[in-house]
Amino acid sequence: MKNNGDDDVREMLQRILLPRKGEPHDVRMLYLIEAEQNKERLTWADRVTVTVPAGAEVSFQTYFNAFPASYWRRWSQLEHVLLRMNVAGTASVEVYRSKIDGTRVAVAGHLVTDDVAEFTIPLSHFEDGGWLWFDVTAETDTDITGAGWFADREPGPQIMPDGTEVGPFEKRATVGIPTFNRPHDAVAALQALGEDPLVDAAIDAVIMPDQGNRHPADEPGYDEAVAHFGDRFHEFRQGNLGGSGGYSRIMYEALGDGPAGAAESPFILYMDDDIAIEPESILRAIQVGRYAKSPIIVGGQMLNLQERAQLRTMGELVQREDFMWGPARHSTYDHDFSRYPLGFRGEDADEKDPDAKNSRDLHRRIDVDYNGWWMCMFPRVVAEQIGQPLPLFIKWDDTEYSLRAGKAGFPTVTWPGVAIWHMAWTDKDDAIDWQAYFHLRNRLIVAALNHDGPVDGIISSLRKSTFKHLMCMEYSTLAIQIESMKDFLAGPDQLFDILESSLPRIAAIRKNYSDAVVIPSAADLPAPSGAPGVPTKDVGGRLGKVKKLSWLLKGLKHSLGKEDPRHHETPQVNLSPTEARWFSLSRLDGATVTTAGNNGVAYRRRDRELAESLLKETLALHKEIAGRFDELRDTYRAAQPELVSRESWRRIFE
Questions:
Q1: Using an 8 Å Cβ cutoff, are 236 and 209 in contact?
Q2: Domain-terminating residue out of 397, 427, 457
Q3: Residues assigned a catalytic role
Q4: Range of 305's domain?
Q5: 150: in domain
Q6: Which pTM was predicted?
Q7: Is residue 332 part of a domain?
Q8: Left, alpha or beta for 533 (phi > 0: left; psi -120 to 50: alpha)?
């Protein structure tokens, strides 16, 4: 333990935070876990001071307050970390670490009375995983304040890929938030940035490209939020250039190429407008960036905005065989910390069940290829060296940037405890609505730039999804995917030209297909007539592997026959999104499917002639892509420097 008079450097890496007032129990579990036997609850007057009643116990083995030691060992300059807190009262403070399987190991502990508790913990035992945390048992009513994880030195210079040194860097960042017709969310994001003095002090500038026709400036609270930042705030109104256009504008301005004259921050931090943020995450990201051995892109993890104790994704990579997004090794999706806290290693009865829920994998360090731009921070030196985002409108722009950076020697790290809340993509229809055009076109473009292996896996993946769309009567999706493949084959020279025009063109195409038209309610249509030959128990749900082949044959047989036009007026069934599976829809001629947002239904009508036409054109394009892929690789790679240059983007912005 150290005395208050110690004058050594104490650089905060990660504050211990208390939940905001009024947070429900499940969200509080992200910050602290009170022992079930406590007779009194803990209280806190602010977010950094907690009162632990006499006899109560509390653990900070939680998502936001445990220290992801394995990440600091792998990526930082530090060999040890300090845990430090002010203790008023008498309490036992016990420090623990975890192994890669979540096993708890005691590290240190003291009974502290009215003193500063400080522990120095080496990072030597965290090669592949492990967290640090502490528990408190109060002997008397005890106040703990100013708790956090610290470095005992300032960050040093960083090593660039070519061996030169840069830095050390100051604790400053420019924050960019593009917005499109979400004025309330945009204002809420601005307010969140200014609510914590320490976070506010680290923000050099806030850049907000406004690409919609509903402006944050017309929203209550905007004037006060902007006044708080004063001349640090810069708004730019521009056409709808999508996420890539908004984020490229932020980088363009932050690098000093635009009229704003934004401060030359050492870091540029992207955030979506439709998020809720833990502002502390900004400080944590900056500190990770400052203490890195070499410049790295720091990604924030995504918590589920609708299930706020749930970690949507830990980290992802691009699967090389089919060049599609996928989970990183040992990562997990939709982990609910209120049910399975960080210390939950599973029940004894589940030991032989590989599907049993536990938190063991959360103790492994996860290595990724990229991070979504819901929250992502770039060292200025990286942006200066590798250029702007590609003009892709939306989808895959974030993936491509990290892949490009990785090739240049700047890896991306998705960092635990640095996070925002965002709506999970499972609550969107983006795989089948207008976004499906950008999903496929941009996947092919990014593959041409980065995929060096055979194209067979990509083509096989495209064919599989094509047949699923056909069996699900998603004809509008196939129609716009045809456009996406044509635009990919047309080459890179047109990407800037179609940056604004692609979306209106795709929207016009979708209007011609009933599956793309949202009807307010299934009640606006005749009552379902039923589906003869398709037992109710076989509609929706999950399908065992052994049944897939037989159901595929049944679906194909039905799909090859002529549709019954009666079911184009009266649906056979009304299906929820989870029930609208290929093995159900492939045996129907007409069905409504509720949108992922639960705000209406789409009436899907089987049309054999249309399906045959779409299939024929799609397969012909698959064949052309396979035959020309090597040529297109060369073409896109030759064009990449121009596509990501600030000069090219300047012509768009000006």
A1: yes
A2: 427
A3: 398
A4: 159-315+368-427
A5: yes
A6: 0.93
A7: no
A8: left
